[in-house]
Inverse folding.
């Protein structure tokens, strides 16, 4: 029961004793939890990217002989596309705040479709890279593919969250609990988008 | 001045009892989301593992009792020192401090009825338990990790360690770090959002500052360890080359990643101990903590600066001079916040009226060992000295002074201090003091001679030594000290276990200064009958707040007796934001932990598709636990 919905004797007793609740000026604890989880994810990507540049600093040829410099255009386009898919996510967060369940579900479904396309595109690029060089050949290949795989795993997790949230919103409606979940989903995707940009620049750095 | 229940409020209390009533029996413990029960589970599990880690240490000390020992083989010795380090650091100290003390006490100290995320709290415990079992199963068949707790490559690479020993280490630590990350998030949100109305940040107990700093450090340090272990497993099992210089990798990448985690880890271990010390000292000196704001700031500064010193573990690997000088200087800077706290503790004791009961004795022991460990730490920050004694017993002496003397002593003092709170009974004071002296002297006799042995050149991790090296007497002393120490620890355990049954009834025997003492001992499942309000950092010294609580109780105000509820407040000033409904019991946290265990077991057995299936099932279990909605 939300404080805003408090009624009866209990509510009066709480207000008298502790003051009138005001939920407008504080993020829910669920949002705090997601923000902190994402801090850990940022730290994880920070150490991956740090490892990439550390290995580059100890290897004289980067990428090693026999491996072409990474392509710039297609990964950059793919990342831009991912950033565009954040628009329906942002829209979903706005619609949910206004209590529009149908529009929220539709926006998340649109984002889900678009992000599935992104992941499929990235898998094609990943497979193409694997044909050209292997993570088992050199440390460059190892860190290159690991960094991309960890990013793709985060996209996959985001897709699972999209799907789970759509099912819950359809089954249970836009309760306050799931409203916070939509807000968290948006937060998750914003951070994944920002990390995708960092991964992109690391990935293409030898070609810049 | 504990809150007393007037007759007219009994109806409300009965209602709270009904709402918060725990499930009976084993199922109640399996499905519990009550922070106190989870704290107790953490306590007994980590105590058991402390016993296992201690037994490993005793085996090693028995082996080293004299030259040419043959008690255990070199292979078993390698596994013992590795498992001892992993157990004490990952499976005992952190779970005991954050898991047991933090879980049980922190919500009580801030006037909350539970942690911010009770089910996540439960899953943290079950994952911790499963990861401990996962790592200890390795002992069967002699497959325990065997490359030291920091597991340096290339020793830990497939080429030099082809069995599954290192895989138990790698997957076990990744598994364990899931638990610690979830716990860290939970503590931070609990501290920021669940404080009692009026408990603004400047009125929060120093204990909470210490746990806040340790939780932030955990959150940002653990990803480096998880990544290091992941890359190691990719190298070992899929033929990648992160740590292989022949293919462009670097063995120093492991050392950097490990110590980026490993040095903050030292402060993660010791910060909660600082928090315990700052709780015990004011109570037994009958005065407020000297330099309260500076101590709070120093606790946070220690955690922050801890991230900038990792390479002082790597002074012998050939780093550039500028880097070694930077890390040496940064290591010395940490002395400043540490010394602020040290002076504050000593000044509080000297300017108060100290009552040297068992908990305070352990804190005095902690201060002595913290100074000794700190001084040897300063010597290790001197680059040439560090290079001379690197990998010798001097280093072991230093970190045991810090980790055992300075981190475990407050834990032992804290066990005595909060024993009446948790059990409602009093321990035996005379036996308590005897246990302190045994433990104190045992620690000194075990670890002090290690400084001398290190200076004499005895390298660490050697399973035996020849008779003509002049190391025999010191090793004999250390082994005798280890048995003395074990006797002291057993005395503590016996004292507390027997007092649980035979101890006198006690509610608030020490007149503690923080809010946990305002409620009954042991606390009711709902913690507080009336939600406390706070206008001072010393909730129990400034009794006006408690009188006001009692009046509100008599009027039936501020009880939150309409549901499984607790208040949520603003992060800075702790103004009431809303009333949160807390989740009930749930079977999903242990189910989720079991499924993750299946995943890690399959990864170990190189069945990746089955591991993936377990991960999907764990995800479905996570979804299922949202079948009950409450305020997120």
């Amino acid at each position: 029961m939300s404080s805003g919905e408090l009624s009866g004797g209990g509510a009066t007793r709480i207000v008298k004793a502790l003051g009138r609740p005001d939920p407008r000026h504080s993020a829910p604890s669920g949002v705090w939890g997601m923000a902190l989880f994402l801090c850990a994810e940022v730290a994880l990507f920070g150490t991956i990217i740090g490892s990439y540049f550390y290995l580059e600093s100890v290897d004289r040829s980067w990428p090693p002989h026999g491996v072409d410099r990474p392509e710039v255009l297609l990964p950059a386009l793919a990342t831009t596309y991912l950033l565009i898919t954040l628009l329906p996510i942002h829209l979903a967060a706005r619609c949910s705040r206004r209590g529009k369940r149908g529009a929220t579900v539709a926006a998340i479904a649109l984002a889900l479709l678009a992000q599935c396309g992104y992941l499929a595109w990235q898998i094609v690029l990943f497979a193409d890279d694997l044909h050209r060089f292997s993570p088992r050949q050199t440390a460059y290949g190892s860190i290159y593919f690991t960094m991309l795989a960890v990013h793709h795993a985060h996209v996959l997790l985001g897709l699972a969250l999209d799907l789970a949230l759509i099912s819950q919103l359809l089954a249970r409606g836009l309760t306050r609990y799931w409203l916070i979940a939509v807000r968290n989903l948006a937060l998750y995707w914003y951070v994944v988008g920002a990390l995708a940009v960092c991964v992109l620049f690391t990935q293409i750095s030898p070609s810049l | 001045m504990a809150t007393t229940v007037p007759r007219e409020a009994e109806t409300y209390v009965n209602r709270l009892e009904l709402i918060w009533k725990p499930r009976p029996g084993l199922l109640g413990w399996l499905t519990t989301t009550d922070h106190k029960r989870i704290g107790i589970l953490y306590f007994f599990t980590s105590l058991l593992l402390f016993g296992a880690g201690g037994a490993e240490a005793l085996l090693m000390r028995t082996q080293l009792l004299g030259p040419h020992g043959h008690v255990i083989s070199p292979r078993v010795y390698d596994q013992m020192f590795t498992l001892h380090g992993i157990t004490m650091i990952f499976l005992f100290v952190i779970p005991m401090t954050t898991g047991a003390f933090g879980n049980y006490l922190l919500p009580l100290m801030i006037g909350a009825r539970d942690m911010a995320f009770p089910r996540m709290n439960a899953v943290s415990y079950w994952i911790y338990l499963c990861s401990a079992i996962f790592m200890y199963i390795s002992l069967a068949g002699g497959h325990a990790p065997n490359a030291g707790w920091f597991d340096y490559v290339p020793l830990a690479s497939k080429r030099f360690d082809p069995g599954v020993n290192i895989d138990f280490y790698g997957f076990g630590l990744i598994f364990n770090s899931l638990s610690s990350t979830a716990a860290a998030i939970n503590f931070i949100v609990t501290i920021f959002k669940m404080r009692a109305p009026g408990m603004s940040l400047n009125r929060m107990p120093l204990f909470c500052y210490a746990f806040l700093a340790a939780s932030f450090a955990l959150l940002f340090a653990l990803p480096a360890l998880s990544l290091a272990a992941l890359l190691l497993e990719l190298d070992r099992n899929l033929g990648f080359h992160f740590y292989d210089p022949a293919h462009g990798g670097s063995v120093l990448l492991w050392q950097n990643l490990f110590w980026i985690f490993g040095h903050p880890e030292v402060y993660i271990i010791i910060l909660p101990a600082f928090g315990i010390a700052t709780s015990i000292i004011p109570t037994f000196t009958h005065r407020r903590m000297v330099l309260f704001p500076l101590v709070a700031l120093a606790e946070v500064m220690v955690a922050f600066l801890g991230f900038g010193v990792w390479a002082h573990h790597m002074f012998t690997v050939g780093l550039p001079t500028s880097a070694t000088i930077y890390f040496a200087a940064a290591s010395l800077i940490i002395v400043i916040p540490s010394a602020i706290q040290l002076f504050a503790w000593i000044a509080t004791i000297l300017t108060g009226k100290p009552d040297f009961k068992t908990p305070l004795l352990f804190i005095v022991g902690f201060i002595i060992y913290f100074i000794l460990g700190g001084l040897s730490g300063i010597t290790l920050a001197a680059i040439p000295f560090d290079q001379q004694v690197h990998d010798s017993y001097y280093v072991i002496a230093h970190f045991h002074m810090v980790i055992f003397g300075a981190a475990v002593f407050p834990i032992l003092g804290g066990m005595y201090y909060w024993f009446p709170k948790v059990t409602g009974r009093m321990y035996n004071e005379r036996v308590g003091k005897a246990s302190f002296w045994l433990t104190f002297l045992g620690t000194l006799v075990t670890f002090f001679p290690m400084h001398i042995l290190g200076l004499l050149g005895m390298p660490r991790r050697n399973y035996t030594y020849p008779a003509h090296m002049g190391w025999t007497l010191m090793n004999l002393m250390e082994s005798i000290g280890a048995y003395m120490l074990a006797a002291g620890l057993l005395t503590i355990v016996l004292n507390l276990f027997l007092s649980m049954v035979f101890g006198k009834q006690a509610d608030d025997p020490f007149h503690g200064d923080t809010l946990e003492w305002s409620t009954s001992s042991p606390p009711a499942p709902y913690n507080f009958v009336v939600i406390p309000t706070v206008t001072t950092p010393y909730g129990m010294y400034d009794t006006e707040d408690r009188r006001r609580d009692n009046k509100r109780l008599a009027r039936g105000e501020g009880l939150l007796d309409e549901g499984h509820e607790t208040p949520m407040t603003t992060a800075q000033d702790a103004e009431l934001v809303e009333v949160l409904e807390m989740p009930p019991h749930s079977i999903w946290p242990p189910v989720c932990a079991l499924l993750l265990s299946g995943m890690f077991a399959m990864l170990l057995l190189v069945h990746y598709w089955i591991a993936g299936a377990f991960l999907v099932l764990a995800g479905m279990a996570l979804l299922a636990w949202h079948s009950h909605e409450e305020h997120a």
